[in-house]
Amino acid sequence: MMIFFLLALVVLGTSLGDVFMTVGMKQHDIIDDFRPGPLGRSLAVIMRNRWIILSIAAFAVSFFGFMGLVSVADLSFAVPATASAYVIETVLAVWILKETVSRQRWLGAILVAVGVVLISL
Amino acid sequence: MKTRICLLIIVLSNALGNVVLGYGMRQIGSIASYSPLKLIVSSLRALSNPFVLLGVALLVVFFIAHMIVLSWADLSYVLIMTSAGYIVVAALGWWLLDEPIKPLRWIGILVITAGVVLVGGTPHSTLPERSAEPERNGSQARL
């Protein structure tokens, strides 16, 4: 039971973290000036975006959830189980971020999720 | 092109950052106690190790590059493309740490590679207002 609770924290933390970060970054202009000054100023603005702050909080939940998960379960369970995030995030990208995920991209996402399970068994 | 360069930086800084950080942490030894005071002392000791510092710096580069690419590219694109990191980590482990690659692992690496190649053939942004590569806005000279 504890294992599945921690797994849910990890997968939801990563997935929501990535979605929140994408929402925050899409509110910002495209970053195309990589000189240190302008880049630093862009980052200073971005770090005050509430979606970015929320995403960092979600990643922190996911990080500590993973620490907890590997303390109660084997890595060979923990890593493949978190591969489900690839599919969940692709669903969220369509549903919340309104991205167009073609059949080709769906197939790629499923292959990567399967591949991550295979390499960690 | 700029998308591909960002993805390369993301994949390499993440893989190298984790490897270098792991190497540094093993030099320090395992953290025996989780009491807050000892944890602070252990953290300070860890941060005085050059490999730990380099690892943290690389992971900061990873995080910033990941944010930057999402300012124009799709999450569903970046997510799959950066999974190429698994291939880099397996290669680094085999090359630097002499970790053998089992047959099942080889198959996994091939399957991930196939997924990355498939998604690499799709446009990096499907949102109409973000679909232009940043360099097309005449910003190339600023690099």
Q: Which helices and strands occur, and which strands form pairs?
A:
The complex is a heterodimer of chains A (121) and B (143).
Chain A: H1 2-27, H2 36-46, H3 50-72, H4 75-82, H5 84-95, H6 103-120
Helix pairs in contact in A: 1-3, 1-5, 4-6, 5-6
Chain B: H1 2-28, H2 36-47, H3 50-69, H4 75-81, H5 85-96, H6 103-120
Helix pairs in contact in B: 1-3, 1-5
Could you describe the 3D structure shown?
The complex is a heterodimer of chains A (121) and B (143). With 121 residues, chain A is mainly α. Chain A has one domain (2-120). Chain A contains six helices and no strands. In chain A, helix 1 crosses helix 5 (84-95). Chain A is globular. The model of chain A has no long low-confidence stretch (mean pLDDT 93). By secondary structure, chain B is an all-alpha fold. Chain B starts with a helix and ends in a 23-residue tail after the last helix. The longest helix of chain B has 27 residues, at 2-28. Chain B has one domain (2-133). Chains A and B meet through helix 1, helix 5 and helix 6 of A and helix 3, helix 4 and helix 6 of B.
